[in-house]
Amino acid sequence: MDSLSDNALMLRVKAGDVDRMGLLFERYHRPLFGFLYHMLGRADASEDLVQNVFYRMLKYRHTFTGDGEFRTWIYHLARNVLADYVKKTATPPTTPTWPTWPTTSVAAAAPTRAWKRTRK
């Protein structure tokens, strides 16, 4: 059974043989983790997102046609899971802080005669 192609396994999963998903998980959980970890830099979130990818694989198995490569399809799911995660966890932009100016009076801040440039 391990000799079946990824496309053939996914077509079986699509047909209702969800036990075959275990083989796809064995083949792809590490590469997907590496992809997600490279993008996020957080191991805990990457592991959770790998689980979400396989959940979506099961949820959207009816969209797999078998015409293209399974690898392309699952990485497309992974990219979408990652985009959703980033949107969900993104912090809203903060208001820029402007520099504060000294609160001295204008007269005190005026240059003295020594600083003024004299015309000749």
TrEMBL record:
Keyword Cell inner membrane on entry: no
Pfam families per record: Sigma70_r2
UniProt domain RNA polymerase sigma-70 region: residue ranges: 24-89
Transcription found in the keyword field: yes
Keywords for the protein's UniProt record, in alphabetical order: DNA-binding, Sigma factor, Transcription, Transcription regulation
Domain of life: Bacteria
Protein name, UniProt field: RNA polymerase sigma factor
